[in-house]
Write a sequence for this structure.
């Protein structure tokens, strides 16, 4: 990749779920700035399903194929518009140039989620997370870096906010600038919305689940939240803003329990843990299992007690019950690729003195490299970056 260049990858899903050919479209291209003013670029989706590229201010754009990706040349790249200007006067041309350049820049910023327009939240959230999760080649160095618990602390603590120490965290996830938390224990289970930008971790909304349900994992799913419970085999879908329950469903797992759930935006499926070594994959339409993969630790042993999880960089990040670790699991093979040691984040002997329990809770954030992590009954949520 050229110096200063940037790989950008879009995985776009059309609104038309009945058109399988259009439903999953993956575009990758490279922006190569030539001057300090270059780089403004936009794209527009055409009615026929192709995309049209525009480049501006002397930025060179190479196709995905040229930078080593499989890419169908007929899939829109042949429609590059180099913005030829037929203006007669230089000033007129300059004004038109500036206007179009600004429009293209704004379009690109909106489309990439850098700025949001009223009424476009659902799409922008979806595309922001898609960009984070589907730009796999962008993280090739990370994939290739071996990390084991013997390497000690292989993360950087970025910050910390307060967290209710009576909150038995079972699920942690993020979208729309807020953290969504599923809290467990009978008579104490609830779904909460937290503000990660307030030092106190302000609770913006909280809904009790009643005395008989034990909340477990929860994930963002477009404009909904999908939550599972411990032993009741019941799941719930909530409106992401009001937390109003809009659907309940039954499910089955290897252990007939629910522990963790996350959403793979790239493959459009849920991934579920139940304390066994299995990752269960659910169809998002039927909420039924389509397959399951047995996960193994770096040691080769089955990865027992897989707990809270989060889909990130094409991998499943997993807490393990009663261990201060985060596993990085390849969901296709079930193989653990890295094991991060988090025993020094809040050492067990210190946190036990104030009644805090196990390390549990992993979430993405609005920084594609930063994660939120916490634990059951912890009085803090940390933001961290993994090496
Ligand atoms: Ca999570």
């Amino acid at each position: 990749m050229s110096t200063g260049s940037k790989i950008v990858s879009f995985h776009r899903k059309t609104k038309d779920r009945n058109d399988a050919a259009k439903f999953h479209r993956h575009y990758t291209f490279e922006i190569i700035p030539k001057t300090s003013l270059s780089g403004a670029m936009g794209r527009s989706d055409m009615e026929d399903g192709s995309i049209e590229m525009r480049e501006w201010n002397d930025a060179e754009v190479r196709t995905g194929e040229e930078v080593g990706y499989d890419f169908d040349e007929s899939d829109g790249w042949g429609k590059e518009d180099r913005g030829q200007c037929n203006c007669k006067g230089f000033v007129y041309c300059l004004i038109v140039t500036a206007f179009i350049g600004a429009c293209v820049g704004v379009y690109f910023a909106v489309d990439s989620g850098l700025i949001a327009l009223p009424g476009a939240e659902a799409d922008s959230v979806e595309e922001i997370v898609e960009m984070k999760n589907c730009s796999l080649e962008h993280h090739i160095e990370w994939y290739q870096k071996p990390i084991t618990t013997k390497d000690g602390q292989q993360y950087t603590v970025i910050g910390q906010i307060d967290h209710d120490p009576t909150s038995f965290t079972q699920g942690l996830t993020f979208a729309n600038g807020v953290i969504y938390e599923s809290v467990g224990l009978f008579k104490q289970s609830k779904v909460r919305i937290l503000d990660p930008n307030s030092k106190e971790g302000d609770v913006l909304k909280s809904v009790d689940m009643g005395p008989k349900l034990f909340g477990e994992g929860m994930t963002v799913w477009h404009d909904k939240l999908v939550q599972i419970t411990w032993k009741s085999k019941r799941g719930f879908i909530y409106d992401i803003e009001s937390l109003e329950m809009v659907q309940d469903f039954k499910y089955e797992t290897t252990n007939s329990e629910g522990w963790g759930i996350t959403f793979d935006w790239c493959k459009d499926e849920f991934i579920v843990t139940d304390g066994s070594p299995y990752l269960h994959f659910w169809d998002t339409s039927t909420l039924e299992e389509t397959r399951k993969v047995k996960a193994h630790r770096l040691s080769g042993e089955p990865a027992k007690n897989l707990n809270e999880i989060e889909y990130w960089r094409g991998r499943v990040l997993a807490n393990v019950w009663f261990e201060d670790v985060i596993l990085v699991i390849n969901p296709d093979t079930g193989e653990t690729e890295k094991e991060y040691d988090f025993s020094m984040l809040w050492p067990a002997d210190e946190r036990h003195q104030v009644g805090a329990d196990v390390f549990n809770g992993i979430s993405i954030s609005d920084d594609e490299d930063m994660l939120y992590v916490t634990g059951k009954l912890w009085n803090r949520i940390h933001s961290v970056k993994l090496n």
